[in-house]
Amino acid sequence: MNLDQYPIISDLSHLLYKFESIGPKGIIKKVIQYTPVKSIGKKIYNLSFGDLNEINGVPDDTIDSNNNDTKKISITVARSALEFSSQFPHARILVIGSTKSRTRLYQMTFRKHFEEIDKLFDIQGYIEYDWRKFESGINYEAFLFTKKLNKL
């Protein structure tokens, strides 16, 4: 992935990644966290992303920082998914927006970059109480990424 992205730093567990967004609003600390979701299924990790909450060190996904670098941030989050998947090749990544509009934004990003994503991950969308192969034009409630093991 040779697209413009921010440098990321992982903790030793490879479940937490940090970087800084740089734009007109200054430097904003960001964090990406992968958390096991045992209630859904084996080896599923929820991807949480947002501004760093300085008090508890976790992402705050309710803040809309608008630092004019959405594309660069999206590519940085995607890079973290690649690094996470290299450490946990059999894990699946669950992505759900904190609001319907954020979920829709994620879906538009996935659709826009589907050709690149599809080379590395299988994507499923959750709709009507079922997981289905990701298709354009369907509004999903959540997304599940599974690394294509023979592609990385």
Folded structure, characterized:
It is a single chain. Strands 1, 2, 3, 4, 5, 6, 7, 8 and 9 form a nine-stranded mixed β-sheet that branches. The chain is globular and about 40 Å long. The chain is 25% helix and 35% strand. The model has no long low-confidence stretch (mean pLDDT 90). It is α+β, with helices and mostly antiparallel strands.
The tally of domains stands at 1
Number of helical regions: 3
Mean pLDDT value: 90
Overall outline: globular
| SSE pattern, N- to C-terminal | EEEEEHEHHEEE
User: How many beta strands in the DSSP annotation?
Assistant: 9
- Derived from helix and strand composition plus strand pairing, the structural class reads alpha+beta
- CA gyration radius, whole angstroms: 15 Å
Query: How many angstroms does the end-to-end distance come to?
Result: 12 Å
**Beta-strand share of residues:** 25-35%
Indicate the percent of residues in helices: 25-40%
Low-confidence stretches: none
Give the biggest sheet: 9 strands, mixed
Record the SSE blueprint.
Blueprint: E1 9-10, E2 16-23, E3 26-36, E4 44-52, E5 59-60, H1 70-87, E6 92-95, H2 100-112, H3 114-120, E7 121-127, E8 130-133, E9 142-147
Parallel strand pairs: 4-6
Antiparallel strand pairs: 1-2, 2-3, 3-4, 4-5, 6-9, 7-8, 7-9
Write a brief caption for the model.
The chain has 152 residues and is of the alpha+beta class. 25% of the residues lie in helices and 35% in strands. It has one domain.
